DNA sequence: CTGAAAGCGCTTACAG
DNA sequence: CTGAAAGCGCTTACAG
């Protein structure tokens, strides 16, 4: 271990109280002692012990973040944004990978509590009553990202999924498409599943296009499920000129399968995704998609959390703007 | 704040020492008191304060990880592996995003020191003397991932880049290619740049193929630089039937440009990448590439670090196996 | 089997 | 302007 505040005090011939004061820029010492102390600190290479500080200040300058999967393209962008602001405002971030597993999540929540984090960001998953209870009991600020809860009053930052899905579908319609298939996310997912389906259906309805079971299929947001869904759609034999996939990964899967079947995108088939992950730009051809400002969402969530930590006042939820990134997978139907 | 060990002790009518003992499964109490204490703990919803524990134990059960960019596909995989093992072995991980910025990195190192992390994993960047000095001064275990240092004796886990590049090039040669271009990583990068160039050149040499300046171009590992490099190669007019790109992102860029120029892959041009990121599987056509076991590397690094933390003995560096993932971007030349 | 006490490295009234 | 002392929530000899 390095030198402690005691060592510094002794060497500088002052009390630890004085050293502590200059360390924290508090008043109560002459310019001369300040200089002396600062010099000794430098000489000894003294570093304050944040753990000891945390114990007494009841603040650890650390926040916890929970993701279903840290390595997903989605989570890593959001994490990047969170980390950026946290660092700017002198906080560290502990990452937790829940695997969408209830037990694991509860365990993380407990650990985060024991480690006395100052706040928590909970992302992309349904806030169960269990989670809510322990979060509530921890009595620290919590921000939800890409998820929300009607029942539990944590502020959130997210895109309006239903609205965004409506726009994506409408965009296709405005290009002239009427036979529009949808590859949805996980069945029953109330966060990124159902709302996007609703957006799709409402756009269809508003433009007088009947919803067809045959043109609708569930995936699980992942690439492989996109491939499978596309195959299913093709096998059903129902004609369609465009598909709206509820994630870029699924859209890319659909793209691959189209390619394998010799279907030209966008000449014979238009595809629009959702997320605007890096792969959207890198796919061949580049994917037209709905963009969520993930990095910004991470930043905003961290800002909201830190504001709550610092001021104690509850912050307002925020709906972030989505947008349609026009690239090369959508064209007018033949 | 929740109840402390004192509250528990009072309510259970024992001393805090006893509570501490049952908490830590140490001997020294009757079955009866144990039951009593456990019951009170449950009743009060008592959670130990890890900060107080850390202060006295000189162990925080926390490790720090430094990445150039947390949101890169590369870093997030490694992070996932690290987090997985850390959690399994009761440690938390603090992530740091250095932006490959010296000042920022030094700041993180300082914070990690103040927060008394038990160990550090340093990834994908050159270990400068400055970094080494403060790391050394912290006197805690350090593991390097995807980087290494001849001068400074920290154990590392990485793939043999030169060897892997040799294999990739050799693979192309064995398919019958003789005119093989290379899109390299960043010029002067001693970690993932130069070694891969050397591997490429040695394979060429071993198979009696002269190295041609015209078929070599630098990128910076990113997608856009891959696009630019491919354009440059095409503009130079020197014929080639295959390209080895030192990253999947650059390979994907090359793929896009080939597509834009109406060059069929793999019929007219073969491409092999490096990394085996998710996009390799998702590209059209799927990218043949060199795989590094990123998740496993993260896991192994965490295991090595935790072993050093727990036993105090220095662990051996590890070269991880690379492999060539054959997909659909390489064929025999016309 | 059990408890009183010291101590981890700090901060913060309090007193001077 | 400065220091002695209490205390944050724990663990761990030490003594019984």
UniProtKB/TrEMBL annotation, chains A, B:
Name the domain of life this protein comes from: Bacteria
Q: Name one GO molecular function term.
A: DNA-binding transcription factor activity
Enumerate the SUPFAM superfamilies for this protein: lambda repressor-like DNA-binding domains, Periplasmic binding protein-like I
- Pfam families cross-referenced by the UniProt entry: LacI, Peripla_BP_1
Ranges for the HTH lacI-type domain? 3-57
The UniProt keywords, alphabetically, are: DNA-binding, Transcription, Transcription regulation
In terms of PANTHER family, this protein maps to: HTH-TYPE TRANSCRIPTIONAL REGULATOR GALS (PTHR30146:SF109), LACI-RELATED TRANSCRIPTIONAL REPRESSOR (PTHR30146)
- The name this protein goes by in its record: Substrate-binding domain-containing protein
Organism listed in the record:
Paenactinomyces guangxiensis
């Amino acid at each position: 271990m390095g030198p402690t505040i005691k060592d510094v005090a002794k060497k500088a011939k002052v009390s630890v109280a004085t050293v502590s004061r200059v360390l924290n820029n508090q008043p109560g010492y002459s310019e001369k002692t300040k200089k002396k102390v600062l010099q000794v600190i430098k000489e000894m290479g003294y570093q304050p012990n944040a753990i000891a500080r945390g114990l007494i200040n009841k603040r650890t300058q650390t926040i916890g973040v929970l993701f279903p999967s840290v390595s997903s393209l989605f989570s890593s962008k959001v994490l990047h944004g969170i980390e950026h602001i946290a660092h700017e405002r002198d906080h560290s971030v502990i990452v937790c990978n829940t695997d969408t597993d209830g037990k694991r999540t509860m365990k993380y929540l407990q650990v985060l509590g024991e480690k006395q984090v100052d706040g928590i960001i909970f992302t992309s998953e349904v806030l169960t009553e269990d989670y809510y209870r322990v979060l509530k009991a921890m009595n620290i600020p919590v921000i939800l990202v890409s998820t929300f809860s009607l029942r539990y009053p944590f502020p959130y930052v997210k895109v309006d999924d239903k609205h965004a899905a409506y726009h994506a579908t409408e965009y296709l319609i405005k290009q002239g498409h009427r036979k529009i298939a949808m590859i949805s996310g996980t069945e029953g997912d109330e966060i990124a599943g159902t709302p996007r389906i609703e957006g799709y259906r409402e756009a269809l309805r508003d433009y007088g296009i009947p919803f067809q079971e045959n043109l609708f299929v569930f995936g699980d947001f992942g690439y492989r499920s996109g491939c499978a869904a596309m195959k299913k759609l093709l096998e059903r034999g129902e004609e369609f000129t465009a598909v709206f996939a509820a994630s870029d990964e699924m859209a890319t899967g659909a793209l691959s399968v189209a390619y394998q079947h010799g279907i030209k995108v966008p000449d014979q088939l238009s595809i629009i995704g959702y997320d605007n992950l890096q792969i959207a730009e890198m796919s061949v051809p580049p994917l037209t998609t709905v963009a969520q400002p993930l990095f910004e969402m991470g930043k905003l969530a961290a800002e909201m959390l830190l504001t709550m930590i610092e001021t104690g006042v509850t912050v307002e939820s925020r709906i972030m703007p989505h947008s349609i990134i026009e690239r090369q997978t959508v064209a007018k139907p033949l």
